Amino acid sequence: MTPFDYKTFNFIDVGKQVLLTEREGLEQLDQYINDDFSRACEMMFHCSGKIVVMGMGKSGHVGRKMAATFASTGTPAFFVHPGEASHGDLGMVSKQDVVILISNSGESHEILALIPVLKRLDIRLICLTANPESSMGKAANVHICVKVPQEACPLGLAPTTSTTAVMVMGDALAVALLEARGFTAEDFALSHPGGALGRKLLLRVSDIMHTGTEIPQVSRDASLRDALLEITRKNLGMTVITDDLMKIEGIFTDGDLRRIFDMGVNVNEAKITDVMTTGGIRVRPTLLAVDALNLMQDKHITCVMVADGDQLLGVVHMHDMLRAGVV
């Protein structure tokens, strides 16, 4: 390794040159979004099995990411290591599958050893290489070229621009299939239930609302003092006023209390019906929690009733949203 002077070496210039080289490589990639790309998408779109991705070395790492992107965007896929495939894992591949093989040179020995078996099983092959005339390129049912002018590595050895190009091509395939399938944000959430997006798109108000004895509630005959005691007991900053059948008549909140103090209302003598807000904002239990949160923010309220028409079913507070990870 040739020594260099740390005082004069410019890491920033080198970093920017890498970005420039890879950007130029991606610009060249545009020409390969062509009929072969379309044929590959159609093959995967009509696939009744799964998409199986294989690659060795850096191509394998990119292949794992490609398979993960397919799987999370509506195209069932998984990665199989070519070396393990030669020792039993090829049994994971069925005739209904489409196999994507990745190799920059198109001459990966581990992959070439698998192609005769895959052909014997009549499995359709999509190969991504930089050389259409390579062994893999010629063996493919569809070949997608991912050739780049040069690697960002000054030695031209470390896979840099070439692996970026393959990753971008994989993203292009996945997104094209996503749009063709009409894949939605809710579909995405179903494959990401543990993430923040999943919580936002799958959680309903009914999943987090307070019900039964947890609901702060008083009858229309209650005094204001009774209502204040109920607000304190239930600790949600409000109480609902209902009839004997839990039909909503109104709502009273901490904010209302501050306003009646300004009006000089006698807390010990007033009836709750004298100071409540008639009706009140309510949401249905099937509403997405994130939509209920947006409503609460728009209305500048911290708690909302959950109801079926005028029938009180529960209440949900901003703190419930926080605890559920919706915010």
TrEMBL record:
Which parts of the sequence are marked as the site Catalytically relevant? K58, E110, E151, H192
Occurrences of domain SIS (ranges): 40-183
Catalyzed chemical reaction(s): D-arabinose 5-phosphate = D-ribulose 5-phosphate
Under Gene3D superfamilies, the record lists: CBS-domain (3.10.580.10), Glucose-6-phosphate isomerase like protein, domain 1 (3.40.50.10490)
UniProt pathway annotation: Carbohydrate biosynthesis; 3-deoxy-D-manno-octulosonate biosynthesis; 3-deoxy-D-manno-octulosonate from D-ribulose 5-phosphate: step 1/3; Bacterial outer membrane biogenesis; lipopolysaccharide biosynthesis
Which controlled-vocabulary keywords does the entry list? CBS domain, Isomerase, Metal-binding, Repeat, Zinc
UniProt GO MF annotations: arabinose-5-phosphate isomerase activity; carbohydrate derivative binding; metal ion binding
- The protein's Enzyme Commission number: 5.3.1.13
Mention one GO biological process in which this protein takes part, according to its record. Answer: carbohydrate derivative metabolic process
* Binding-site list for Zn(2+): H81
The residues covered by the CBS domain are 209-269, 276-327
Give the UniProt family note: Belongs to the SIS family. GutQ/KpsF subfamily.
Assembly and partners are described as:
Homotetramer.
> What is the official name of this protein in its record?
Arabinose 5-phosphate isomerase
Say which species the protein is native to.
Rouxiella silvae
Q: What is the lineage of its organism?
A: Bacteria, Pseudomonadati, Pseudomonadota, Gammaproteobacteria, Enterobacterales
Gene of this entry: kdsD
